[in-house]
């Protein structure tokens, strides 16, 4: 068994797999940042789009419901085979396109939890609508949605494994390359266990960091 372990986890194989893990983290980070940005904009439009902007709120509602009710893998494949450009950039765009809809609903829930009276109080102090959003509403919203946001970030990290289907050199794809040279079931189980541990360490560490941050907010 030990001999089999050393045959699989050579320096070259481990380096190759960790290179894929680095790509996974980079793609997940970029997709998270872009999804939070666009998700915030979509949530603001859907929540406060009234009057002449009602059509925009309706359009955003259709967008979020459509993407939330379809698989992420479908859009990764669709975008990959229809959009020309850098492979990594295209994949980040595909994940962002899908995840922005989910983020929009998370932020919309946070926005709806803010008392309407805060707008009136801010207006009485001379704040404009945009200033109220920037200085008062959005900071509170982000604090309220931290647990749901963490859950979605972890989902993004795991969803990068779908990129194996389009041959992006992320963690699962590189592990699959190593798996191709293993002909022993025990070796396969070792490699699968290694993949599970790596994903667990990243996601659990992220979870601990966010929980620690939440505690500092409560103390403050």
Q: Could you characterize the architecture of this molecule?
A:
The chain is mainly alpha-helical and 220 residues long. 81% of the residues lie in helices and 0% in strands. The chain is built from ten helices and no strands. It has helices at residues 2-8, 11-48, 54-68, 72-82, 87-112, 117-124, 129-144, 146-159, 171-179, 185-219. Helix 3 (54-68) crosses helix 5, helix 4 packs across helix 5 (87-112) and helix 6 (117-124) crosses helix 7. It is elongated and about 75 Å long. The N and C termini lie far apart (52 Å). The model has no long low-confidence stretch (mean pLDDT 91).
Please identify the oligomeric state.
single chain
The percentage of residues in β strands lies in under 5%
Structural class: mainly alpha
- Could you estimate the helical fraction of the residues in percent? over 70%
Question: Between the first and last Cα atoms, what is the distance in angstroms?
Answer: 52 Å
Helix segment tally: 10
The biggest sheet amounts to: none
The helix/strand order is HHHHHHHHHH
How many strands appear in the DSSP assignment? 0
Characterize the overall form.
elongated
Radius of gyration: 21 Å
List keywords for this structure.
single chain, 220 residues, mainly alpha, 10 helices, 81% helix, elongated
């Amino acid at each position: 068994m030990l001999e089999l372990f050393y045959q699989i986890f050579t320096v070259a194989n481990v380096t190759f797999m960790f290179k894929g893990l680095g790509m996974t983290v980079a793609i997940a980070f970029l997709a998270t940042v872009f999804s939070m940005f666009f998700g915030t904009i979509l949530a603001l439009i859907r929540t406060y789009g009234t009057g002449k902007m009602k059509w925009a709120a309706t359009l955003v509602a259709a967008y979020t419901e459509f993407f939330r009710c379809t698989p992420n893998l479908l859009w990764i494949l669709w975008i990959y085979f229809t959009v020309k450009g850098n492979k990594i950039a295209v994949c980040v765009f595909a994940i962002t396109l899908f995840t922005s809809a989910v983020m929009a609903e998370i932020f919309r829930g946070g926005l709806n939890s803010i008392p309407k009276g805060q707008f009136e109080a801010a207006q009485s102090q001379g704040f404009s609508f945009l200033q109220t959003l920037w200085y008062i509403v959005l900071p509170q919203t982000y604090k309220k949605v931290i647990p749901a946001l963490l859950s979605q970030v972890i989902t993004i990290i795991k969803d990068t494994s779908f990129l194996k289907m389009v041959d992006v050199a992320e963690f699962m794809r590189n592990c699959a390359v190593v798996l191709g040279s293993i002909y022993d079931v025990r070796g396969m189980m070792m490699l699968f266990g290694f993949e599970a541990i790596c994903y667990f360490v990243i996601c659990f560490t992220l979870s601990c960091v966010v929980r620690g941050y939440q505690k500092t907010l409560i103390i403050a």
